[in-house]
Amino acid sequence: MSKAKGKAKQVKGKIKESAGSAMDDKGMQAEGSAERMSGKAEEMTAKASDKMKGTRRS
Q1: How far apart are CA 9 and CA 54, in angstroms?
Q2: I need a surface site. Which of 26, 34, 41, 58 has the fewest CB within 10 A?
Q3: CB 11 within 8 A of CB 41
C-alpha cells in the first residue's frame, strides 16, 4: 500500500460518484463512494505505517 495509490483510488471514486450522480445511477454512486472511502483508508494506513517506521528504534 502507498499513499499515492490511496489518493488515486479516492480520485477515481469521486469521479465515479459524480458520474453516477449526473446519470442518476445510484449503483454507480455507491460504488464510487465505496472506492473513495477505501482509498482514504488505504492512504491513512500508509501514513500510519510511515509514521511507525519513523519512530521505531533498533
Answers
A1: 25
A2: 58
A3: no
pLDDT category at 57 given cuts 50, 70, 90 is low
CA–CA distance, 56 with 43 (Å, rounded to integer): 20
Task: Tell me how far apart the alpha carbons of residues 23 and 17 are, in angstroms, rounded to a whole number.
Answer: 10
CB hemisphere CA count around 44 (13 angstroms): 7
Contact 44, 10 (CB under 8 A): no
pTM assigned to the model? 0.81
Lookup result for grid cell 517506521: 53
Task: Give the chain's length.
Answer: 58
